[in-house]
Write a structure and sequence with these properties.
The protein is an alpha/beta fold. The chain has helices spanning 3-7, 99-102, 107-110, 131-145, 154-164, 176-183, 193-208, 228-235, 256-270, 289-302, 327-330, 334-342, 346-361, 384-391, 395-405, 419-427, 454-469, 475-482, 484-489; strands spanning 34-44, 53-60, 63-68, 73-79, 84-87, 89-91, 114-119, 169-172, 174-175, 214-217, 245-248, 274-276, 307-311, 316-320, 367-369, 411-415, 431-433, 506-509, 530-535, 538-542, 545-546.
Amino acid sequence: MKRRDFLAGSAVGLAGLAGPGRPATPWVAATRNRQTLVIRHGTLYDGTGGSPRTGDIAIDGDRIATVGEVAATGAVEIDARGMAVAPGFIDIHSHADLSLLVNPRAESRIRQGVTLEVVGQDGSSIGPWSDGVFELTRDRYLRDFDVDIDFRDIGGFLDRIDRERPAVSVASMVGHGNVRGVVVGGADRPATASEIERMRALVREALAGGAVGLSTGLEYTPGSFAGRDELVALAGELRGTVYPYASHMRNEDDRLLGALEEAVHVGRVAGVAVQVSHLKAQGERNHWKADAALTAIEAARAAGVDVHFDRYPYVAYATGLSNLFPASARAGGTARFMARLADPETGPVFERACRDKIALLGSWDAVQITRIGGPNATARGRRLGELAAELGEDPYDLTVRLLRDGGGSVGMIGFGMSEENTARMLAHPLGMVCSDGGAFAPYGPLSRSSPHPRGYGSFPRVLGHYVREQRAMTLESAVHKMSGLPARKLGLRDRGALREGAVADVVVFNPDTVRDRATFDDPHQYPDGVAHVVVSGVHTIREGEQTGNLGGRAVRGRGPVG
């Protein structure tokens, strides 16, 4: 299915009901006789974490006009009796990025109640790009998705979001891996002083273009080659902006606590806020470190570092299959990576490292293939150990073959965390809910992979499994972690709250039935229980189904300071 088919039926939505000549953005008081949309008799969870109350919400244009009792009638009325009404959910760590241009309906996202995606995570953002990376990306998206990438930086990406108006709104961080790739390339070496200055300039340019923070992916190349001084220097460009240094840390298993200390160090020395990305303790031998990590975060905050973390509600992570190998194996690109694995001297060294990683996870069946094409497409969704036995191959040899045939671009899920730690992290007062997932659909080009179910189910899973079933936290606390808390972390004053004058991002769900349905074996399934979603005043999900009206827009930062 071509991208233009997704756009059919897309409309201005409820914001257009305001009538000719009326501005789209100002909100008006409840003295009007008629509102664009009124949600009545719902249980209101305002995003602050406070106790809920019964009431109405009136929306006029793209703003919340009234919270409380609404006398005026609405052009559209929603009876929310027995339903929870909350601010639209903010995914503080999303990988939707360019998939929102492939299918602007953002099916797997909007149906969860997500109204704002914070992309550009793990050190990888939509620009800045080197000439080579830009051309490769543009060619791939034209070939595979009929999408022309006609921009090279975050400002251009956000401009495109405003033109396309997908179902969800978008904010973006700037990726450290991008700026290092442009200036230093893929070399495994420290950056020089002049290179650091050039990278700082790129970070400033990204902030001027609307970026809302700096992200790192220190387990991935080329970010893994950066030292602390480089990270502090680049994070320092955020000083005075409120925007965070968001770090996929250097290690999340055996060296977790040292990696966490580094993230806190960068924030403290640079004088900026810290967001620890998808906090976890991988491998059974490291599960005990979850408590130590939470204690360290609490201590850092008590010492004056504005540090929070996010976590998705699953015991498995997703990454590239190449990350079973150390960064030194992957340095310099896929061709060099494959050559090192085949070299009689270096190959055995990296094989041992890979097998050690598998031992950490427990077995080869703790790895599931998610994204792969070409002659090995049938491996999609399969466990490595099971598939190797079926094919009569050693699991390590199969891993190398899949990487070689796939040009190094193969996705995997790794089962390595504990349910107890997951619940504890999600419930912790400094934790936020994220998906760490992309946007998918059970049809068209975004259905081709076998993704981690978090892309479809993260937010409903928290509400259904961890709130209703496990009672790990209250519903008001969960809503706060999905709305008000991430909005505050990003300095978004008019989002994440049911408040008069706030942007009209609202989700209505049934607290008794909301749940995720996506599984690791069958991920392309929408959740249950999310009845209505309003994005910037546009009624996008009605009675659980898409209306075809898309209200997303770019959410830009306020630029660098000085």
